[in-house]
Write a structure and sequence with these properties.
The protein is an all-alpha fold. Helices cover 89% and strands 0% of the residues. It has 1 helix and no strands.
Length: 113
């Protein structure tokens, strides 16, 4: 009977040790859950910040694209105006030459702007 009591007490001590180990393991897991929950909150905040940054970047990219197309349109307009100016200058020179050939007695400077 004594042996049974000692065996029973030994099993109780083993079970107490096992309970203590499980409680420590449970505490460690609760701390890990708390840590992961906090980390998750931080990551969610970071995602929100990145979404705002992305939205701003897309708006700036869209604005830049509009500016770029407007710039291209203005460059085309300048090119057309330069071509028109060259054509007008050419026409003026041709007209001056015709005037010089048709009226050689008139001084050249009267035909030049």
């Amino acid at each position: 009977m004594r042996q049974e009591i000692e065996d029973g007490q030994s099993k109780i001590e083993e079970q107490k040790a096992r309970i203590k180990d499980l409680e420590q393991e449970n505490l460690a897991k609760e701390q890990e859950v708390t840590s992961l929950t906090h980390r998750n909150q931080l990551l969610e905040q970071r995602v929100e910040t990145l979404e705002v940054t992305l939205k701003e970047a897309k708006a700036k990219a869209s604005e830049a694209a509009q500016d770029s197309s407007q710039n291209e349109a203005l460059q085309r307009r300048i090119q057309l105006m330069e071509e028109e100016a060259e054509q007008t200058d050419k026409t003026l020179r041709e007209t001056n030459e015709k005037c010089v050939h048709t009226s050689p007695q008139v001084p050249l400077y009267e035909y030049v702007c």
